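Saturday, quiet lab. Running sequence design on the structure tokens for the scaffold JK sent over.
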């Protein structure tokens, strides 16, 4: 279902993100998590994608398997870095033939083996140009749902690491929405004030599409350090850090603190009228299931308007 229709029917969306494993063992473990989380009836599940090559193929394979073997609605990430416009067109044709309803359009980062890659050399240099290309594809017609792809884009409540100018950053987001983006999914954050201020700044800038909040529960100290590297600029509130310090890095205790913190975040966001909550699962199901149980939510359909 096109996300514009989803937001008309649901007060709040719940969704999960997965990444494609590189081994058969990893794939089977992931599908056990997908089976567990599928019982919660998420609005959609997103599947990450790297820049070109085998990573892109792994994404397509996982999207196809979710589509064929589950009742879930997969939303593939589509990056334009290191890819030609013709390659993007082929991917869109493939997803359209499978009946995929929505895509998350991203510029993406160059792969590790191409550290000197210049975005200026790409056919689509910015995510806004990729959004426009998807919309042109939609305009050509011939789509199973009659509407083509719903298009999501990324938002950065704590700021985009390559755009320290926060005013320019909002201009870039507005360009993606003006190009045709239907909704925004944010980078992870741990301070709800950061998200709520970001939402207010979006509305002030005339960006009125739904904004889905990205949540990732801390389940280990190592994982938190990895998050700090992946999501540059993310603030770790002092209150959360003090709670984690009291655990003395004991694994189960760290996990309990992280799940509790994320649960409180979600409860506050729901009270604040958030459009949706998107869980970065790291291919695990248990933390998300615990959060759902604490919130009293058995499925996203409970939050239909």
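Result came back. Writing it out in full:
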């Amino acid at each position: 279902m096109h996300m514009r229709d989803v937001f008309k029917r649901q007060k709040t969306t719940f969704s999960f993100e997965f990444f494609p494993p590189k081994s058969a063992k990893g794939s089977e473990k992931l599908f056990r998590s997908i089976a567990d989380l599928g019982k919660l009836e998420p609005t959609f599940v997103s599947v990450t994608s790297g820049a070109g090559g085998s990573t892109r193929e792994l994404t397509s394979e996982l999207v196809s398997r979710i589509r064929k073997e589950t009742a879930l609605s997969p939303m593939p990430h589509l990056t334009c870095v290191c890819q030609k416009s013709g390659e993007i067109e082929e991917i869109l044709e493939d997803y359209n033939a499978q009946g995929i309803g929505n895509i998350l359009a991203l510029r993406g980062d160059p792969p590790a083996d191409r550290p000197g890659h210049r975005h200026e050399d790409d056919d689509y240099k910015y995510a806004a140009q990729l959004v426009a290309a998807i919309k042109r594809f939609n305009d050509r017609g011939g789509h199973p749902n009659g509407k083509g792809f719903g298009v999501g884009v990324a938002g950065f409540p704590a700021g985009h690491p390559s755009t320290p100018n926060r005013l320019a950053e909002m201009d870039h987001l507005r360009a993606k929405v003006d190009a045709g983006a239907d909704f925004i999914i944010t980078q992870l954050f741990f301070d709800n004030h950061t998200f709520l201020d970001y939402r207010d700044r979006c509305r002030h800038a005339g960006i009125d599409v739904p904004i889905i909040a990205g949540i990732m529960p801390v389940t280990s100290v190592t994982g938190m350090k990895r998050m700090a590297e992946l999501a540059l600029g993310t603030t770790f509130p002092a209150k959360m850090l003090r709670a984690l310090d009291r655990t003395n890095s004991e694994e189960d205790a760290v996990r309990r603190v992280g799940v509790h913190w994320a649960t409180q975040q979600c409860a506050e966001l729901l009270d604040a009228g958030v459009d949706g909550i998107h869980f970065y699962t790291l291919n695990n199901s248990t933390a998300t299931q615990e959060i759902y149980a604490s919130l009293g939510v058995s499925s996203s359909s409970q939050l239909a308007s």
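Notes for JK: The CA atoms of residues 92 and 200 lie 33 Å apart. The two ends are 17 Å apart (CA to CA). Ask whether to fix the surface positions before the next round.
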